[in-house]
Design brief:
Length: 611
C-alpha cells in the first residue's frame, strides 16, 4: 500500500492550553521538513480526552506529544536499553546507571507513527486501511494493546491476523505500525520453560531474560552453508536406531493414526538426549492443555526439562498463534544452531497446523483448493522443514533435527497433508494401529518406514550389529501370513518363524526406557547370532533384560569399550557372542551372580534402568 495523504491540512489537538505561536511555528517547520511540503495548514482542535500536550495528525501519520505519548515513548526507550543491556552482557555496565542516563537524556523524538484504521473485525482477522507501506509479516498494535501480524496485502486494505483477544477492537479503532517483523526472543533462559507462541511464559515461572530477537520467518540455509548429515541422533528406540537411523540435521516424519504412540516416540527421543549435548524444543500445536501438562510432567520426571523448551499453542488458542508456533519454535532452535549447538525439534502435529492455516486462509478470503486447503499449503510446511539443516563446519557445524508428526485417518498415507509432508521430509516412521493393538509397541511398520539418510547416520557398532534384521523381519511377516493355517512345517521354515518372532519381541520397548547404544548392540548381536531363537516367545523380553543387566555388572569392559569407541571389531563381536552364550547357558544362575556382585557405579553404567 502506498502512503496516501488526502488533504493539505494537519490537525493539532490540544488539551487545556492551545500552543503558543512559537510552538506552532516549530511544528510547521517539522511537518514541512518531514513531508517536503511547505503548504500544510494547521487546524487547531480542543480535545478533552488528552491530559496534556498535543497530538498532530496528518494523513495517516501521527506525532504523539501528549503526556501519555511521552510516557509510552519513555517506557519503550527504557525497554530498548534494557534489551540492549541483556544482549551485550557487558560486566562493566550497570543497568541502573544506563536506565538513569536514558531518563536524563530523554527527549521527545520527532518520529511520526503510522496509524491505520480498522474497517472490519471478526473471527480473529482485522481488515485495516491507511496503515502506510506495511510489509508482509510485520507486527501492528491496536489501541487496546493487542498485537497482530500483516498477512494479506490488498490494493486498498490490509488483512491482519490477531494474536490475542479481539473484544477490545472496534471498527474505527486505531492501529499503529511497528516497523518490525514478527519475531520471538531467544536465549538459554528458555530452557526448562513452557512458553506460548510469542515467547511469553505459561508456566507461572520467573521472567525470562532473552539475549536476542529472531524473526519467526527466516530463509532456510543455502546449499553451500550445509553439509551432508553424518552424525547420529540417537532415539534410544531399538527399532528406529537399527532400521531407520536419524542423523543430526535430518527431518524424519512420524506418521500414524490417532493413539498409535506418535507423541511417545518423540518424547522418548527427547528423554534419550539426557546424556547427549542435544537441546530439545517441543512445539505443541492444537493439542489439549491437559495433554501438554501431562507431557511436561513426564519430561520433568525424567529430568528432561533441563534441556527442553515447550512451545505450546493449545486447541483453545486463536488460529494465528497455532499457525506461528512451529515457526517461533524453529527461530528458537536457529539461535542454538547458529552457535554451533545441536537441536532436536518436534512439531506435534502438522495436521492440526495445516487446519489452523486453512481456517485463517478461508477467513482472509483466499480461494480453497483440494480438501479446502489454500494453494500455498505445501509451501507452509516446506519452508518450515527446510530450515532444519546440518550447517557446514565454517558456520560452526550446528544442526537442527526435525521430527514432524502427522496424523492419518484410517492409515491413509495418500491424503493431501501426509503426502505433502512425506515428500518434504527425509523419511518417515509409519505407526500402525493393528500392530499397536497386537501389543507390538512401538508400532513401527517395517515395510512402510524408511530413512533416506540411512547408515551414514549410524555409529559403526550399530551398523555392523544390525545385520539383516530388516529383511529377516519382512520375510517373517510374509511367511507368518502364509503359514498361519498349516500344521506340518519343515525345519527350515520353523527356524525362520522362530527367529522372526524373537526379533519382533526384541523390538518391543516400554515407554520412558530409551536404550543406550551399547545395550542395543549387545541385544542385536545376540539375536542376529540366533542365540535367542530357542527361547519361548513370552520369555524373550525377560531374558533380554536379565542379559543386559548381567552385562552391565559382569562384563563392564565390553560395555565401556562399546560406549567409548563406538566401533565393533570382529574381536569385540566374538567377545560379546561368547559372553551372551555364557549368560544364556544358565540365565537363572547368572542372575543370581549379579545379585551377589558389588554395587556398580550408576555414573559409569551405560544404563540405569532395565529395558
Ligand atoms: P494422539 O493421536 O492422541 O496424539 P499419539 O499417536 O500421539 O496419540 P501417544 O499419546 O503417544 O499416541 O500414545 C497413545 C497411548 O499409547 C498412550 O496412552 C501411551 O501411554 C501408549 N503407548 C505409546 N507407546 C507405548 C509403548 N511403547 N508401550 C506402551 N504404551 C505405549
Ligand atoms: Mg500425540
Amino acid at each position: 500500500m502506498s502512503t496516501r495523504i488526502d488533504s493539505n491540512t494537519a490537525i493539532l489537538r490540544y488539551a487545556a492550553t492551545p500552543p503558543t505561536d512559537e510552538q506552532i511555528a516549530q511544528i510547521r517547520q517539522i511537518l514541512a521538513k518531514r513531508f517536503r511540503n511547505k503548504a500544510i495548514a494547521l487546524e487547531l482542535q480542543k480535545d478533552d480526552q488528552l491530559t496534556g500536550g498535543f497530538v498532530i495528525s496528518y494523513g495517516n501519520f501521527e506525532y504523539d506529544w501528549s503526556d501519555r505519548g511521552r510516557e509510552s515513548q519513555l517506557e519503550s526507550g527504557l525497554i530498548v536499553s534494557h534489551d540492549n543491556f541483556l544482549r551485550r552482557r557487558n560486566p562493566e555496565e550497570n543497568i541502573i546507571s544506563i536506565l538513569k542516563g536514558r531518563i536524563e537524556e530523554f527527549e521527545l523524538y520527532a518520529e511520526a507513527k503510522e496509524i491505520g484504521t480498522v474497517l472490519e473485525i471478526g473471527d480473529g482477522i482485522a481488515t485495516i486501511k491507511d496503515v502506510g507501506n506495511v510489509n508482509y509479516g510485520e507486527i501492528v498494535i491496536f489501541d487496546d494493546g493487542t498485537r497482530g501480524m500483516v498477512q494479506d496485502i490488498q490494493k486498498k486494505t490490509v488483512g491482519v491476523i490477531l494474536f490475542g483477544d479481539q473484544r477490545g477492537i472496534r471498527a474505527g479503532s486505531h492501529v499503529v505500525r511497528m516497523n518490525r517483523e514478527a519475531g520471538i526472543s531467544v536465549g538459554e533462559d528458555y530452557l526448562g520453560r513452557v512458553v506460548d507462541a510469542l515467547g511469553a511464559p505459561l508456566d507461572g515461572g520467573a521472567n525470562i531474560r532473552p539475549v536476542g530477537y529472531y524473526p519467526i520467518e527466516q530463509p532456510a540455509p543455502g546449499i553451500s552453508e550445509r553439509q551432508s548429515v553424518h552424525e547420529p541422533m540417537e532415539t534410544g528406540i531399538l527399532s528406529i536406531d537399527t532400521m531407520f537411523p536419524i542423523g543430526r540435521g535430518q527431518r524424519e516424519l512420524i506418521i500414524g493414526d490417532r493413539q498409535t504412540g506418535k507423541t511417545s516416540i518423540a518424547l522418548d527421543t527427547i528423554i534419550n538426549q539426557r546424556r547427549s549435548d542435544v537441546i530439545c524444543i517441543y512445539v505443541a500445536i492444537g493439542q489439549k492443555a491437559s495433554t501438554i501438562a501431562q507431557l511436561v510432567n513426564t519430561l520433568k520426571k525424567y529430568d528432561a526439562m533441563r534441556y527442553t523448551t515447550v512451545v505450546a499453542a493449545t486447541a483453545s488458542d486463536p488460529a494465528p498463534l497455532q499457525y506461528i508456533a512451529p515457526y517461533a519454535g524453529t527461530a528458537m532452535a536457529e539461535y542454538y544452531m547458529h552457535r554451533g549447538q545441536h537441536v532436536l525439534i518436534v512439531y506435534d502435529d502438522l495436521s492440526k497446523h495445516a487446519v489452523a492455516y486453512r481456517s485463517l486462509s478461508l477467513l482472509l478470503g483466499r480461494p480453497p483448493g483440494r480438501e479446502a486447503y489454500p494453494g500455498d499449503i505445501f509451501y507452509l510446511h516446506s519452508r518450515l522443514l527446510e530450515r532444519s539443516a546440518k550447517l557446514s563446519d565454517e558456520l560452526g557445524g550446528g544442526s537442527i533435527t526435525a521430527l514432524p508428526i502427522v496424523e492419518t485417518q484410517a492409515g491413509d498415507v495418500s491424503a493431501y497433508i501426509p503426502t505433502n509432508v512425506i515428500s518434504i521430509t527425509d523419511g518417515q516412521i509409519f505407526l500402525e494401529s493393528d500392530l499397536f493393538f497386537e501389543g507390538m509397541r512401538p508400532a513401527v511398520n517395517v515395510g512402510l518406514s524408511v530413512s533416506r539418510v540411512g547408515s551414514s547416520a549410524q555409529t559403526e557398532a550399530i551398523r555392523k550389529s544390525s545385520g539383516s534384521i530388516r529383511i529377516d523381519l519382512a520375510q517373517y511377516r510374509e511367511m507368518a501370513v502364509f503359514t498361519q493355517f498349516s500344521s506340518d512345517l519343515d525345519d527350515m521354515t520353523k527356524k525362520q518363524l522362530a527367529h522372526g518372532q524373537v526379533l519382533m519381541e526384541l523390538l518391543k520397548q516400554r515407554l520412558g526406557r530409551p536404550m543406550p547404544m551399547a545395550d542395543q548392540v549387545i541385544s542385536l548381536i545376540a539375536a542376529n547370532g540366533g542365540l535367542l531363537d530357542d527361547i519361548p516367545k513370552d520369555d524373550v523380553k525377560d531374558i533380554q533384560r536379565g542379559m543386559l543387566h548381567w552385562f552391565h555388572h559382569m562384563q563392564e569392559k565390553i560395555c565401556l569399550e562399546l560406549r567409548q569407541e563406538k566401533y565393533l571389531p570382529f574381536r569385540l563381536k566374538d567377545e560379546i557372542l561368547a559372553a551372551a552364550k555364557e549368560y544364556l547357558a544358565d540365565p537363572a544362575e547368572a542372575d543370581r551372580k549379579v545379585e551377589d556382585a558389588p554395587l556398580f557405579e550408576e555414573a559409569n553404567s551405560s544404563v540405569s534402568k532395565p529395558v
